[in-house]
Amino acid sequence: MENRAIARLLAETADLMEISAEDSFRIRSYRTAAGVIEGYPEQMASILKDPEKKLTDIAGIGKGIAAIIEEIEERGSFERRDEMLGKYPAGLLELLNIQGLGPKSVRLLYDTYKVESIDELERICKEQKLRDLPRMGAKLEEKVLRSIASYRKTQGRFLLSFGQRAADELIEYLSSVAGVETVTAAGSLRRGKETIGDLDLLATGTGAEAALEKFVSHPRVHEVLGKGPNKASVKFGLEGLQVDLRALGAESYGAALLYFTGSKEHNISLRSRAQKLGFTLNEYGLELLDNARLDNETRVASATEEEIYAKLGLDWIPPELRENSGEMEAAEEHKLPRLVEERHIRGDVHMHTTESDGRATLAEMAEAARERGLEYIAITDHSKALAMANGLDEKRAVAFAHQVREMDQRGLGLRVFSGLECDILRDGKMDLADDALAELDWVVGSVHSYMNLEAAEMTDRLLRAMECPHLKAIGHPTGRILLHRESFPFDFEVVAAEAARRKIYLEINASPERLDLSAALIRAAKARGCKFVISTDAHHPKHLANMSYGVRMARRGWLEPRDILNTHSAVDFAKAIA
DNA sequence: GCCGTTTTCGGCCCGACTGTTTTCAGTCG
Q1: How far is the CA of A65 from the C1' of B1 (A)?
Q2: What residue numbers bound the domain in which A280 lies?
Q3: What is the pLDDT of residues A92-133, one digit of tens each?
Q4: A196 - beta bridge partners?
Q5: Average pLDDT over residues A258-262
Q6: How far is the CA of A314 from the C1' of B28 (A)?
Q7: How, if at all, do strands A299-301 and A158-159 pair?
Q8: Cα–Cα distance between A355 and A358 in angstroms, integer?
């Protein structure tokens, strides 16, 4: 079973255990293990098969969880999970997504009214029966009904790009308040996660409290979830994105930024470390433990993240790595990667023009790329299998390649390579014949159809495609569309190993709807020796700006400039693909 | 259930806010 699926079984069991009010520390262990496994670059199944390796060597996995993983591999479930599912139906898990309800309330609702679905919960609220339960009232009924509506609309997640736009808008708005010095986005947005659940903003300066007032009165705020002297939470915009704003003094800025950037697992790990070193860490600072008075005299660090990490014996950890998946150990040993940055990117090698389904001409795309400071691009229009995208057949592809070369030689202000995004057909053959592909500088192979094959068939399809001598890269390798479509099933590790062997690049597609590969897969592929390209797949000049999202995914995958082909010069790119 | 330059047993991250209370449990991040 895939790591992600194993992690999910553990996390769900932890949720059920929480509803069942089991030991909270055991629950935490399950959650920690789930997080570690989800981000682990190697499949649990292959570790089990390897006599050289032990699951218990992974931090967060001990004898108990190792046995559970073995049991999962054997039969798809494990004893405690079965036991929990015997006590509480799986439907309760979804109820935990409703804001205002936690495990205690979910259990009470189930025990009292047998509520085990969102629909039933909605009915109980509408019939005003929730208020009959202890410590619950009319206000909670209303809150839960609003939460249900919001959950149904969005499933609670938003694209990173959506969060970024909201953050930009609010930061500009709040920065205009007198006395506000800085407004910064923290949370999963700062970590560059492909989807975010909410938006966390921090404001510093004497005007920070005034910023809270202005915040809750923003015209696009349509619900205030809470407001105190230090923080406020609202639902923002028609989509109902939750935004939290925190007001704080500049002296605590680093501690607060660290705290609100998360991830939660990273924070817990950090605090645990602080405790062992005789400190306590909260959002106000790092303080000496066992000191009766917690005041400035006991505070050892708080103004910047760097000083807090340093006091804990760690190098500063880039936000994208803060997922409690090895970054703490690397920071301790001064072995953190020197992550790729957007300024390292010198070319963009997946984009479309009006020749297929792009919205701008070759000249317009080239001009936009030049304005962005790129040194080279590759034009990769679709192949004929994508008829609805006006994909190119052999004749058109070759003719267009000539046209691209001609324009390149006339000079467009940057180097333009002739390429193609060639469909990988159902049986793994390329959509265009070899002799046509041979005319092109750069062929990206992508799957756009028959995505519901069995995993083995899909794996074979990709392996077969890589036999094509002209294939240089695999485009959006998993086919996922965020919040809409899961990755198609295939054995990623086998495909990645073959790509590494054949020196075929894996694309990190920077389109905000895709962000394909995920961080975990990037790490897994890198561990197998793969190299990458980060590409925007732009269909319009403005899409070229999406490069920043692709770079953030690469950073989350621990990539350095040398792992990425398009950080190299046009000359070196040409050499590498020749 | 995990983990160990205090420990193989006994710890395990921390605080704000809300709504319902008669002093705080539950939820959230």
Answers
A1: 7
A2: 253-332
A3: 998 998 888 999 999 999 999 999 999 899 999 999 999 888
A4: A158
A5: 92
A6: 28
A7: unpaired
A8: 7
Does one domain contain both A385 and A354? yes
Indicate whether A166 and A267 sit together in one domain: no
Nucleotide nearest to A200 (CA to C1'): B29
Average pLDDT in chain A: 91
Q: What is the pLDDT of residue A337?
A: 96
Give yes or no for a contact between A373 and A411, defined as CB atoms under 8 angstroms apart: no
Percent of the residues in chain A that have a pLDDT greater than 70, as a whole number = 98
CA atom of A33 to C1′ atom of B9, Å: 22
Same domain, A441 and A509: yes
Beta bridge partners of A250: none
The model's pLDDT over A521-551, given as tens digits with 9 standing for 90+, comes to 999 999 999 999 999 999 989 899 999 999 9
- d(Cα A391, Cα A383) in Å, to the nearest integer? 4
* A206-211 contact pairs (CB < 8 A, 24+): A206/A179, A207/A177, A207/A178, A207/A179, A207/A180, A207/A181, A208/A179, A208/A180, A208/A247, A208/A248, A208/A249, A209/A247, A210/A177, A210/A178, A210/A179, A210/A180, A211/A174, A211/A177, A211/A180, A211/A183, A211/A245, A211/A247
- Whether residue A311 is found in the same domain as residue A185: no
pLDDT tier at A293 (50, 70, 90 boundaries)? very low
Q: Are residues A167 and A264 in the same domain?
A: no
**Strand, helix or coil for residue A200:** strand
